[in-house]
Amino acid sequence: MITDARTSRRAGLPRRAREMSPLLSTVSASLVLALSAMLGASMSAGASILVAPARFEVEVGASDTSQVLTIVNRGQESLAGIVYAGGAVQRPDGSLEYLDDEVSLRLAGSYVAVGVKELFILPGSHAVIPVIFRSLGDRASFYPVIFVELRPAGNGALPDDGAPEGGGPVQTVARIAVPVLMTNTLKRQGMSFRPVIADLAVKPIPGESGLVVTVSVENAGNVHGETSGEVAIFDPAGGLIASLPVSTGRVLPGATRAVSVRWPAPQSQGVVRVLASLNPVGSEGAAHEAVSRSVDVAWDLSGVPPRVFVTESPGFAALVGDPAWLTSLVFDFPEGE
């Protein structure tokens, strides 16, 4: 579940394509959100809500699947709101960019139907929202978001989707996003989680004597999955210098996750081979394969600015840079590094 706070004229906010930076995310089954910190003066200090579940993971087949979303008002004032389904795409850091343009709303509404579209919740009360997840047809998976927009009820009016730009007081609206992971059981044999190491970048750590290795993993399959493994660092003779654990977390189809690990280089100059090896864990029944990629890296961290050269393995002899400097490197790594 992800929340964001925004301001609008009068009671609501026109739903258009917007990019939201998540203020809070969770993977727990339920979470108490202290909305007052985000909503400022528009909501009292005692306002908080409980939303469950924080994320839907749904398998659908030939028929519809029904579940419920529960919202509990644990604050001291009434809340009014609206509920609707929209879209999202995953950023490299794993957060979501919300999509609530007309195309995204229409597409999400084809597969997700909310039984209650307008809310009014008294203090200490709760709302139970039936949610129907429809058959995905030829799709192997689908990843919409259920949005809940809430504000202090005041006079009891609901958020107005068509509020004009001018006139009326400015009011903050909190939007809660509940991600949905839908997979099609009828397409299980065609499911695949296909992680690809799209990039393996190595750069100096600003202000430190070390290197940062960034592994970018793209999911070229049609269902979500996770990867975990290691970034291994070898000297030119093939001796293992360091092994750094790495995990991408969930990667949605078509998305790319980027994760970084730091390695304190044991000397100011050197050459190593960096090997990223990842083992995928996809949805149940999804085909997947382990992946790896390696690069050869030479660096000189003694100068300003520090220099790092990277080439695909095998490539020690083809590293970009000054050949005289490369041939003068001394590979004398301390034991135990």
Keywords:
single chain; 337 residues; mainly beta; Immunoglobulin-like; 2 domains; 3 helices; 6% helix; elongated
Please describe what this structure looks like.
This protein is mainly β. It folds into 2 domains: 188 residues, Immunoglobulins (Immunoglobulin-like), CATH 2.60.40; 137 residues, Sandwich (Immunoglobulin-like), CATH 2.60.40. It is built from 3 helices and 22 strands. Strands 1, 2, 5, 7, 8, 10, 12, 13 and 14 form a 9-stranded mixed sheet that branches. A hairpin with a 5-residue loop joins strand 7 and strand 8.
Question: What's the SSE blueprint?
Answer:
Layout: E1 2-9, E2 24-25, E3 31-33, H1 36-39, E4 49-52, E5 56-60, E6 65-73, E7 79-90, E8 96-99, H2 102-111, E9 112-114, E10 118-121, E11 126-133, E12 141-142, E13 145-152, E14 170-184, E15 195-204, E16 211-219, E17 225-234, E18 240-251, E19 256-263, E20 269-282, E21 291-300, E22 307-312, H3 323-327
Parallel strand pairs: 5-14
Antiparallel strand pairs: 1-2, 1-14, 3-4, 4-6, 6-11, 7-8, 7-10, 7-13, 9-11, 12-14, 13-14, 15-16, 16-19, 17-18, 17-20, 20-21, 21-22
